Amino acid sequence: MGTAFLVYGILGGSVVSKGSFFPSNWLNTESFVSTVKIPVQVFRAVCALTAVWAVTGMLRIFSWERGLKLREAQNDLKQQLKESERKYMDIVESSPDGTLSGGAGLAFLIGGPVTAIPTMTMLWAIFRKKVFFLYMFISIAGTIILAYSFQFLVFVPYVDTDNPLLTGVRSLSGGNAAIITKAGARM
Questions:
Q1: 144/150 Cα distance (integer angstroms)
Q2: What distance in Å separates the CA atoms of residue 43 and residue 12, rounded to the nearest whole number?
Q3: Where are the domains of the chain?
Q4: pLDDT tens across 7-40, in order?
Q5: Cα–Cα dist 157/22, whole Å
Q6: From 90-104, 148-162, 166-180, the region with the lowest mean pLDDT
Q7: Three-state DSSP class for 33?
Q8: How far apart are CA 52 and CA 163, in angstroms?
Q9: Half-sphere exposure at residue 85, Cβ-oriented, CA atoms within 13 angstroms
Q10: Residues 124-160 pLDDT 10s
């Protein structure tokens, strides 16, 4: 590619229209055609096409590298999600009644992967500091808001509606349970 640009520069800069001063009175497009029998524009076009071909190849390499890095980042995020799920299950299994409130579980599942060290390291390397801190603020604040909203708006303890399916339901979540339990049922 560098050679193509060099040759194009020489042909474009030294082989010019005929002029009354040196070197254009000696080396010009007319003398080039009479000597080589091919217009200089053909050589310039070949150099330009060679440069385009080289740049296209370089862009393919960059695209391949970017795709590889994105696949690696995706695999890292999938691994972090699996690890987060495993930690969540460890916490649930170690709780006294084997449950975890819905809001706490949601906060753990959302907040865990977004604040993982590999994720933050990747974002720190790719984006500016302002973008990184904005990401962290939105992620943490959003997780807290979603978790509390989910806990208070979706899962309400001691729900009993006129729906025959929910008759005798003591809790959908919150309080002491994160699963549907019927009044008087043993877990």
A1: 10
A2: 10
A3: 1-81, 101-153, 155-187
A4: 877 777 777 777 777 776 777 788 878 888 888 8
A5: 95
A6: 166-180
A7: helix
A8: 70
A9: 6
A10: 888 888 888 898 898 888 888 887 877 777 655 544 4
- If you write DSSP's letter for every residue of 134-178 in order, what string do you get? HHHHHHHHHHHHHHHHIIIII--BS---S-GGGTTEEESSSTT-S
Q: Is the pLDDT of residue 60 over 90?
A: yes
- Entry pTM: 0.41
67 to 71, 75, 123: CA distances (angstroms): 6, 12, 16
15-38 residues labelled b (16+ CB within 10 A) or e (exposed):
beeeeeeeebeeebeeebeeeeee
Alpha-carbon distance of 103 to 76, in angstroms, equals 25
Run of H or E including 182: strand 181-182
Structure tokens at 83: 């690890």
Residue in the structure block whose two tokens are 């590889």: 68
- Quick check: helix, strand or coil at residue 99? coil
Contacts of 12 (CB under 8 A, 6+ apart): 44
